[in-house]
Prior knowledge:
The protein is mainly alpha-helical and 191 residues long. Helix content is 75%, strand content 0%. The chain is built from 4 helices and no strands. Helix 2 (60-99) packs antiparallel against helix 3 (107-134). The radius of gyration is 24 Å and the shape is elongated.
Amino acid sequence: MPLQLPGVPVLDQCCCCCSLRWGTTVLAWLAMIGAVLQLIFVSYDVSTLVDPSSTHNHTAANVTLDHVMYAVEQEFLVTMLVVLVLEMIVTALLLYGIIWRRPKFMLPYLMLSLLTLVFTFFSTIFYGVIETTFHVALGLVTIFIGLLVIALLAYFWTVIYSYYRQLEETIDVKYQRQVNATTPYCSNEHV
């Protein structure tokens, strides 16, 4: 059963002039390149992480706080590495689905991206409100820019979703033709 979300528009083109297939392919490759670059930067951060016991700051309060911060940063970076590898796998599935016209392989990316959009929306509002308590103008700018980025990401998601729906409809039509071609003709004369 294909993914159908009521209220989500289905586009005919990407950016008013490109086909959905071309736009989805470009977006998928950009996502893959972004994930690879992030993986490189996070791997570098992990490799340059300095253990606080190797420094010469030996007061008890500094050592404890340094070790806690080191552990938190190490956990965060390792988690980021795992998330980025998963993102690359899901994006590779998206590319496979686009290239071979297999919409089912596009579903993990669509689901993960939709969850990311929702999470990004709420975290943008949350951090914008927190920032507003310290500096009103900065908080409002954070919310405004965050919502613009979310709108752009939502449009990109809609392009990929539209291509997914286009592929699903094409497959449904082909399947229906196959069923009609293989169904024997039954007339009422023999009944």
